[in-house]
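hi support,

uploading two proteins for the ticket. first:
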Amino acid sequence: MHYIPVYKHPYYEQFKINEKDFPISESYYEKTISIPCSSKMKIADAKRVVEEIKKVLLK
């Protein structure tokens, strides 16, 4: 899943929103990762995603 704060979407650029007004959203956005997620993924694909995440987190 991928999270992007609403005010970062192109439509909202016209409003010149200051991201400092949303520190929690910004903090969450900076700390999250996007992982592959699809109903067409096979179990082997999901296991590979998990293994790759483990490699990064256990460095």
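and the second one:
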Amino acid sequence: MNSRQTSRSRAGRPDRSASAEKSPLAPEHLAQRPLEVPPAGEIPEIPVLSPTRHPFLYRKRLGTFDRRGRHGDLVRLVLQDGEPFGYGLFNPRSEITVRLLTTQPDPPGESWWRERIADAVAFRRDVLKLDEQTNAYRLVHAEGDGLPGVVVDRLGDVLSVEVFSLGSFQRVDALLKLLTAAAGVEDYVVRCGPQTLDQEGFSAEPFGSSGLRPTSIIEEQGVRFRIDHQAGHKTGFFCDQRDNRRRLSELTSGRTVLDACCYTGGFALYAAVRGEAAEVTGVDLDESAIETAKGNANLNQAKMRFVHADAFAYLRDMLRNERRYGVIVLDPPKFIRNREEHETGRQKYFDLNRLAMQLVEPGGWLLTCTCSGLLPVREFQQTVAAAVPPGRTARIVDRTGAAADHPIAANCLETEYLQALWVRLD
């Protein structure tokens, strides 16, 4: 692909999974909009029957829709007595019918968006001082930064944007101008979230800036990674595990390490490069991810082994072969994407952890993670505890989550999604 041929160069294809049979919104509903506020008399008005501080206003909380309201419109929200409640982005196709932007009396125009973005960037640079340790981090964490429906990762000189709501997608061109200016970069890639068709009623091809290169190299705490902007999952790199990767590397010196769902090699590379592990193996079912992981190993001049295999099958093979590891990492893809998948997903977490625990040598460590936000913290702990094999004892030494550039909004606890348990096997 020559990304300079068009200002909207292709960057892979969206995930069209179980919801592909649903009819998406017509293309005219995806037209880009400015951030300026329409004249007061042209802003549709929607009553809020059940007020909440939560930024998601579901259909059941709202009264009759203003007939002027169109998909993606900025709407004015009022209480039943006519008192103003705030402003949000409207999508009648979604159960999250309004994504609340502000409860202030003034409508959010371009200056409002600019201030939110500036605050998000300053938090990463001035408070967390992330530029001193990496050039890859979460720049905007949706509701965690008061910007519903959009996440932005800075990956070197590229902004990787994932959009989850129709209203945010309609404004992404205008947002990109503010984001690139605030971050001091020119290139970007934009993808829709994997379930926007099912949840928001729209689908759109990814696109990138005219100067977007297919790949770029980032460095995180001394470890280098090549990012594929065309084929990577989500934003292309999991910045959320940065602190956990560093902490794991403090446990791996002289040990044999297995990263059972390694993707492009994050934990495995840290164990080899920073952790001075004696032996490192990474396993993943995604063949392209394994090839990228091998390239990342070469990039760091690290000697390690990567295997294209299903993690469950590989762990069973190692159990039959009576292999043991000093450290095992489980960071699988999301097993629970909706409430219907809860029980089958929980069982997968149990099975995966039961297999891994049997392979950890006495005194060894298991780092087990879930990114299934629908699995409560307590239930994940109970699932892992129940997976301890007969005849062994285990201690959950600590529980961590995403790095600090993924803040949790006090009015939207769903912004906490990543759980990591540090388990010592005796």
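thanks. also noticed: The chain has three domains: 3-26+110-214, 37-102, 238-425.
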